[in-house]
Amino acid sequence: MLPIAFAPNYAHPLPDGHRFPMLKYELLPEQLLREGTATATDFFVAKPPAVADVLLVHAADYYERLRLGHLTRQEERATGFPWSAALFEREVTILGGTIEAARLAQTHGVAFNIAGGTHHAFRARGEGFCLLNDQAAAAAWLLAHVPTVKKVLIVDLDVHQGNGTASIFQSEPRVFTFSMHGARNYPARKEASDLDLPLPDGTDDDHYLQLLGRTLPRLLDEVQPDFVFYLAGVDVLATDKLGHLALTRDGCRQRDELVLNLCHRHQLPVVVCMGGGYSERIADIVEAHANTYRVAAGLWG
């Protein structure tokens, strides 16, 4: 079984200008079901978590202002979304889906959130289309509620640095944050992850995979994590409008194979979230994301 979090409101209620990149939340489950990578029983409905679980990583004042729509205009502009009650419900549902995926991964070895990877959300502010940080909250939930999880590794391979995640855990030795991202990409001001690997524009498959292949096995040996979160953004593709790297779809799949094979070999439970993807053709985005699930199905299915 591949437990996969999904909710009908993942792609809604966003303005028309945001609809295209959000179509993947609807199309990816359809693709996985149509080709047989997943079955209907693999999917579970993501639900909002207890407020206390959100507050493990977010300031209470920020959460309340977000819930009530009391963000300042500047704060709202930084998120990239106009506030609505339905948008808030979407964000807490994404976060709840990743927490539930973390619970299920302990039994099944791997679990997914069709959304997630909202790594630009800080403790008391949102930015870059991220309002609440789902992987940070799920990592904190594991450390608070699962005695066997004493060390968490976050592997962030989205093209953008996981600045919010790095900031949230900057003084938390039980969470190791690793971000491999475009050096000149958003955000302009980077935070300090436990390990940052900034990449030059135009980085291709060979350079990317060699660097990751040298780094991640060493990290697993040094960090000795009990649990891994993997942010598998496909905005590393050469076809991506915002990414500026040059990976092929096959290179992106090999990246997933490298990460997931290591987790499987070390018997490390892993939660995978989608992250970004902004190629011109929606088929390129969906196919690259689907490859991540296909790799996991071959290992844990």
Automatic annotation (TrEMBL):
Keywords: Hydrolase
Taxonomy, superkingdom: Bacteria
Residue span(s) of domain Histone deacetylase: 23-290
SUPFAM superfamilies: Arginase/deacetylase (SSF52768)
Family classification: Belongs to the histone deacetylase family.
Name of this protein: Histone deacetylase
